[in-house]
Amino acid sequence: MPSKSLTGVWAGLDIALLIAAGISIAFSVIWRAPDLLRDLVISDTDLNAGLGLGIMFAITFVISIAAILTPKSTTGGLKALNWVLIADSAATIIIGSIVWFYTLEERKNFSEVWEEQSQDTIGRIQEQFQCCGYYNGTDRAIGTGICASETFALNSTGCVGAVTNFADYTLNNVFTSIYGFQAIIIALFLATMCIINKRVEEERFRKIDAKRGGRGFV
């Protein structure tokens, strides 16, 4: 059977995948609570993608337990697990890359998001950051609160810097975490391959030993 150290590494990586599932699901649920800036940066589509990814990881964990408990002479379950891990990997790369690409043109992308916001939301953002408009005080500013003053509004640098700074911090953490999940998936895939190879090798020696009448090689 595979060495205890190899099995231990595999088990540790499998638990890490379960933790990744928990993190992904937890944040996808918790971040649905109303939050002025987070709602500007993270959409329901993003949260649904994160939830789906977490569920995929959780299902993979269940499959992995069933696979590792198969008879030592078989490898079908572990091979099926690796195909599932490949699917997880593809989903992780796609979601992480979408978030990363979005960060490459944050000022432009969040200009479009700003355009879609209600007057109340824009007014609250302006009050929170003490700024007016998006690019400057004349760019889609709402004349309420501090921006009711025309002088202040005209001299305002706009909210683009504050909004994109928050977005950059949040989205960078998101796609970094997602790519971290990818590292776990790859490591678990490789560990599973090692266990498969070990099982194949042991089964081959068992058959050779059986042909020799169980006398072994000594």
TrEMBL record:
**What domain of life does the native source organism fall in?**
Eukaryota
TM segment ranges: 12-31, 51-69, 81-102, 178-197
The answer on whether this UniProt entry bears the keyword Membrane reads yes
Give the UniProt keywords, A-Z: Membrane, Transmembrane, Transmembrane helix
Q: Which InterPro entries match?
A: Tetraspanin_EC2_sf (IPR008952)
Q: Which GO terms describe its cellular component?
A: membrane
What protein does this entry describe?
A: Uncharacterized protein
From which source organism is this entry? Rhizoctonia solani
